[in-house]
Amino acid sequence: MKSSPANWGKALPRGLDARAFRMGKILPRSFYVRPAEQVARDLLGSILVHRIGNRILAGRIVETEAYLGVEDRAAHAFHGITARTRVLFGPPGHAYVYFIYGMYECLNLVAEPAGKAGCVLVRALEPLLGIEEMRRRRPGSQGRPRRLEDLASGPGKLTLAMGITRRHNGQDVTRGALVVRRGDSPDASSLAAGPRIGVTHCADWPLRFYVRGNACVSSSR
């Protein structure tokens, strides 16, 4: 599935990069059968797509974090297979969605070969399609529309905006309503890495990847 400037350029928000974008083929399972660190870096620029009925919500991935399974004390898989983490030890290319702080859900994509529990947390999106629907799902204060750069600029924000919940836990993201498609890869000079956010263990590991200067990155402000 490809797009043209005439059809897609209008979907891009004011104040962000207003060039047309291309939405390519769904990323195959082989994309995820690699070290989580590589998958996290290579997901930048890809497009997360969620089809809800006849509506399509889409956003460019601009920030990720890698988690390295049983070798990583910050990873949910560190303590091994449980009812919660079983999906992490299964086939790559599936969604791992968990609940946090009693109010937010977070989307991870399972990486590494089956049995080795690496995953990638999708931390932030640049909204591309279905923006009004995202605003409906994340209304601003006093009835004002939320600023576009705030719609999906964090892992809990993006799942709310995109309609992703724990119902999607274990879903195959190489087919179906929730998928990741190829997009325009960022220039190498705009890619950045640094410590992960909000973790206590292994906090200094440089496993957070983001597009430098993008207004939708969670810590850009």
Descriptive account of the structure:
The protein has 5 helices and 8 strands. By secondary structure, it is α+β, with helices and mostly antiparallel strands. The longest helix has 8 residues, at 155-162. Strand 3 and strand 4 (104-111) form a beta hairpin.
Oligomer classification: single chain
Q: Overall 3D geometry?
A: globular
Q: Give the amount of beta strand, in percent.
A: 25-35%
Low-pLDDT segments: 1-19
> Count the helices. How many?
5
Question: How far from one another are the termini?
Answer: 34 Å
Output mean pLDDT: 88
Main β-sheet, in a few words?
A: 8 strands, antiparallel
Radius of gyration: 16 Å
- What structural class do helix, strand and pairing data support? alpha+beta
Task: Report the strand count.
Answer: 8
Order of helices and strands: HHHEEEEEHHEEE
Helix content: 10-25%
